[in-house]
Amino acid sequence: MVSVGSNSKHVCVIGAGPSGLVAARELRKEGHYVVVLEQNHDIGGQWLYDPRVEHQDPLGRGSTLEVHGSVYASLRLASPREIMGYTDFPFLAKKGRDTRRFPSHRELFLYLKDFCDWFGLREMIKFNTRVEYVGMVDSSMFGKDIKWFVRSRDKNSEKVMEEEFDAVVVATGHYSQPRLPTIKGMDAWKGKQMHSHIYRVPEPFSNEVVVVVGNSMSGQDISIELVDIAKEIHLSAKSLEISEGLAKVISKYGNLHLHPQIDSLCEDGRVQFVDGSWVIADSIIYCTGYSYSFPFLDTKGMVVVDDDRVGPLYEHTFPPSLAPSLSFVGIPRKIIGFPFFESQAKWIAQLLSGKRTLPSWDDMMQSIKEFYQSRDAAGIPKHNTHDIANFEYCDKYGEHCGLPHLEDWRKQLCLSALINADANLETYRDSWDDHELLQVAHQSPHFTQLCPDAFDQ
Ligand SMILES: Cc1cc2nc3c(=O)[nH]c(=O)nc-3n(C[C@H](O)[C@H](O)[C@H](O)COP(=O)(O)OP(=O)(O)OC[C@H]3O[C@@H](n4cnc5c(N)ncnc54)[C@H](O)[C@@H]3O)c2cc1C
Predict the structure, then answer these.
(1) Taking the model in full, what pTM does it have?
(2) 4 pLDDT above the threshold of 60
(3) pLDDT (tens digit per residue) in 190-209
(4) What CATH number is associated with residue 305?
(5) Which terms are listed as keywords in the entry (predicted)?
(6) Domain span at 203
(7) Environment class of residue 131 by beta-carbon count within 10 Å: exposed (0-12), middle (13-18) or buried (19+)?
(8) Within this chain, do residues 306 and 165 fall inside the same structural domain, yes or no?
């Protein structure tokens, strides 16, 4: 139901991934006039699999990337499907599709397509439209009356478009711009070096000696995928205190070895580790994570990215000096993504229509300062500023826009999947023991709201 009123704003949403789609829906529901600009030919963001990597710098350096997607061909979700859906649109297993609990990336793309069709979102989206510049129309105006100038380019016709908006919602994701380590000898090393951003399939590493740097999700997935095809895989981890699941995998495969961090790379192909051990390698794949990057955004220094801290942002969403006309959806990490993006979107929509108000500039800045201080005191590095890993925070966040707390089963299923992955890295996507919780989830209103018989098998 759309309610158009005198408080409706002309809003530009940048990006039609999971964050941008739900932002568009919530903004329109609140009566705003919404235009979504999306550089790709379809919706989905990371979940629109993109095999094109050949023209990319393999290390993804430079501020403008040709390819947004970082998802590899074999990727299956790391989170069970039940916890992923937006609050009013469950991620159901559908006949004839990939019905697994941890389905392939394609299935999440199809879910997003269904979401888009169900709520008629496509009509708001301009595809193949890359935003190149966003800035204030008059940068001497702070506070409520800021207007935004958006310049974009049609990727097919090269036509440049310029438009003014009352508000801009940045929903451009943060799993594209490689975060690379600095290693002695990196520039002179003669082998292949690439970031996982451009890894798609294992075949190019056939019979090679490969060093995989980083043992988070992608590093683990890619190492396991390579054991059947590469000659040797040397996984370099920050700490040798690894999970039970990874330890099991390493002891199972004779060609997969664990090492500490790399000390240096030598011109003769040697990769030297800090404990003095070394290997001669053909390739290095850096699975070292991603950085926040907004190459199009000119806020006159009012929002900066400093060692992956995007700030200052009140509640990871609003820069106090530019709020609520500039906002960000999807910045937090280590959360249950889709429902969190939805609560951000609802809050933004309600603030723009005047239904709710933000605290004063001073109070927002004070809250940000206290948040930074608490993170520093807890010894959390700056680059982990937006790693939340806290259900209570997500519940409190939802209160800003009147969204109920996350269902208990959703939290418990999230935790049980994490525990299972930790202990059974190779099998957690196909074997689990949280059947009772799963039943509770399937009987909950979240799953029965659209299709009461969904789980009557
Ligand atoms: C390998 C990998 C595995 C993952 N696994 C999981 C998982 O199992 N579970 C999970 O919940 N999450 C996972 N994620 C995180 C995933 O990124 C989020 O689920 C989700 O895609 C974030 O949505 P988003 O809309 O914020 O960003 P994105 O999905 O990145 O979408 C951003 C959109 O903005 C567009 N855009 C960017 N810049 C511009 C511009 N200048 N102009 C116009 N459009 C622009 C992009 O083309 C894109 O469509 C994974 C990510 C990766 C990379």
Answers:
(1) 0.96
(2) no
(3) 999 999 999 999 999 999 99
(4) 3.50.50.60
(5) FAD, Flavoprotein, Monooxygenase, NADP, Oxidoreductase
(6) 180-286
(7) buried
(8) yes
